[in-house]
Amino acid sequence: MKNESFGPDFLAAPEGAAALKALRAGAEVARWVRADAPRQTKHDRSPVTVADFAVQAVVAQHLAESLGAIQLVAEEDSRSLRGP
């Protein structure tokens, strides 16, 4: 994906720059997490991996650091990591 696909106006805005930084950080984490890492099955029977949780956490952290308090809508729910 080229940066130009976002358009110069988006990348110049604080939100765009933060999103791109978060995306790059999440991609870096995904590269380091092993493909055969433990998995869980969600209530809808779809898989969720350690990479899913790690990438979501890193992206959320980068966005919060760059943009302050934001409301984030995300797919994964960490409650399943806490056990029964």
Overview of the structural elements:
- With 84 residues, the chain is mostly helical.
- Helix content is 50%, strand content 7%.
- Strand 1 (39-41) and strand 2 (47-49) form a beta hairpin.
- The mean pLDDT is 82.
- It contains three helices and two strands.
Quick structural overview:
With 84 residues, this protein is mainly alpha-helical.
Q: How do the SSEs run, as a string of H and E?
A: HHEEH
Rounded Rg: 15 Å
The N- and C-terminal alpha carbons lie at a distance of 40 Å
Oligomer: single chain
Contiguous low-pLDDT stretches (5 residues minimum) are none
Strand content: 5-15%
Q: Which structural class fits the helix and strand makeup? A: mainly alpha
In this structure, how is the largest beta sheet organized? 2 strands, antiparallel
Biggest sheet, spatial arrangement of strands: 1-2
Number of helices: 3
Any descriptors?
mainly alpha; 50% helix; elongated; single chain; 84 residues
Fold topology:
Elements: H1 8-12, H2 14-32, E1 39-41, E2 47-49, H3 50-67
Antiparallel strand pairs: 1-2
Helix pairs in contact: 2-3
